[in-house]
Design a protein that fits this description.
The protein is about 30% helix and about 15% strand. It is an alpha/beta fold. It has 2 domains: about 120 residues, Aspartate Aminotransferase, domain 1, CATH 3.90.1150.10; about 220 residues, 3-Layer(aba) Sandwich (Aspartate Aminotransferase, domain 2). It has a 7-stranded mixed beta sheet, sandwiched between helices. The chain has a 4-stranded antiparallel beta sheet with strand order 11-12-15-14, with helices on one face. The chain has a two-stranded parallel ribbon with strand order 1-13. It is globular, with a radius of gyration of 22 Å.
Length: about 400
């Protein structure tokens, strides 16, 4: 057939994507701790609405707006618009003390998951040969997109001897005029650690002094205080853009909906909107997201059940430490926050190429291998907290798995 690269980006021919989504081991799974879904909530308000739809064949958003009706599906035949959803997002943030006096629906862009937004930001800021400074470890699919687009991904490495703690001063020291874009995850995937807002502000200040954009990926942002969100920085730092998703804390990964928050006082958001595909998320996804937002706007309790996350995570961490306290330590927990549902475990024994994911699956625990994360390897896994009802199964299996680790 001739040249196999004809008309194709030659970099892609031999490039192996690092994304972990389709790379899971075989084995009997007792408890799934792999992909980052809020399995404990899964949007109870949405399930209630869908149950009403099954009974009455009508689904409403809010108190009056009909979204789905058996036989007509009036909303589906029209192209979807997102002004109502963006206004509800602004209401959500303002209710929690973020953006008071300035944040409106105009500051939001919706997309097919936050990854869709991140890819468009890359198109906005990066062309062939340009550089982005991130950190390792970091969301692997983002690294893939930068590399596949012909740009150069560089990383500040979170060091093992600091238990993979993000060190803002070291990241800032690595920022330079040669970089074209900066990106930081908060909370971090896969460790689940939270970077204090003052440290994010220092990074934003350095990026602004260099005349560059800082992306703060807050995919797991629902698991930290609103006061720690970088959305608070946008009035002072219009070079900051924040991405979030309905996939994690909202427990709605299947609807594939995310958004970005940014400044409209410069060219950042207006130019990004030019790259977003028209009608890039569907009407049903937006209707369900709007229902979730309005339901939680009316609900004063902890909207994401972070108390349960805290309790279950501390219980798991205590179990790991207790199971590994006899003899030479063989398992460590990377720097993490008690409020986030993910964590990184890494093997500290003597076997150089020990596959921790393969070891855990022998005991029925499905986790994500960190071999595709820059700065980590097969000796580490990312673990997602399961539903509360599955915690006893996880704790028992984890204790056995740790006791069976080679020294």
């Amino acid at each position: 057939m001739g040249n196999r690269t004809i008309g194709i980006n030659p970099y892609l021919v031999d490039y192996v994507p690092k994304d972990y989504a389709g790379n899971m081991p075989e084995g009997e799974v007792k408890v799934d701790c792999s992909l980052g879904v809020n399995a404990s909530l899964l949007g109870n308000c949405i399930f209630e609405r869908l149950h009403q739809f099954q009974q009455k064949k009508v689904l409403y958003v809010g108190n009056c707006e009909q979204v789905l009706c058996e036989g007509s599906f009036n909303e589906i035949k029209y192209y979807p618009h997102d002004e109502t959803l963006k206004d509800a997002l602004a209401d959500w943030y303002r209710k929690h003390g973020v953006g008071t006096g300035w944040l409106t629906g105009e500051h939001f862009i919706c997309g097919n998951g936050s990854y869709d937004i991140l890819c468009n930001i890359n198109l906005l800021c990066l062309t062939g040969g340009k550089k982005v400074l991130g950190h390792a470890p970091q969301f692997t699919a983002y690294v893939d997109h930068v590399n596949c687009s012909g740009s150069l991904y560089q990383a500040y490495y979170m060091k093992k001897d600091c238990n993979y703690r993000f060190q803002p001063r070291e990241y800032i020291a690595q920022m330079s005029e040669d970089d074209d874009l900066f990106i930081v995850e908060n909370p971090n995937n896969p460790t689940g650690q939270i970077i204090p807002i003052d440290d994010i502000k220092a990074i934003a200040d350095r990026a602004q002094s260099l005349g560059k954009i800082l992306v703060v990926d807050e995919a797991y942002g629902e698991y930290m205080a609103f006061s720690n969100s970088a959305v608070n920085l946008i009035p002072e730092y219009p070079n900051v853009i924040v991405t979030r998703t309905f996939s994690k804390g909202w427990g709605m990964a299947g609807i594939r909906l995310g958004y970005a928050v940014g400044s409209i006082e410069n060219n950042l958001l207006p130019c990004l909107k030019k790259l977003v595909l028209p009608f890039n998320s569907n009407a049903i996804a937006k209707a369900l997201a709007l229902t979730a937002l309005r339901s939680k706007l009316e609900n004063e309790r902890d909207p994401f059940d972070t108390d349960t996350v805290f309790t279950n995570k501390r219980l798991l961490m205590d179990t790991i430490m207790q199971a590994d306290k006899h003899g030479t330590p063989r398992m460590a927990i990377a720097q993490t926050a008690s409020s986030t549902p993910i964590m990184t475990l890494y093997y500290t024994g003597k076997e150089a190429h020990f596959d921790l994911q393969a070891h855990l699956i022998k005991f029925g625990i499905l986790a994500v291998s960190c071999k595709t994360y820059m700065g980590l390897n097969e000796r580490a896994v990312r673990l997602m907290l399961p539903q509360s009802g599955e915690m006893p199964v996880l704790l028992e299996a984890m204790e056995k798995a740790i006791q069976a680790l080679p020294e």
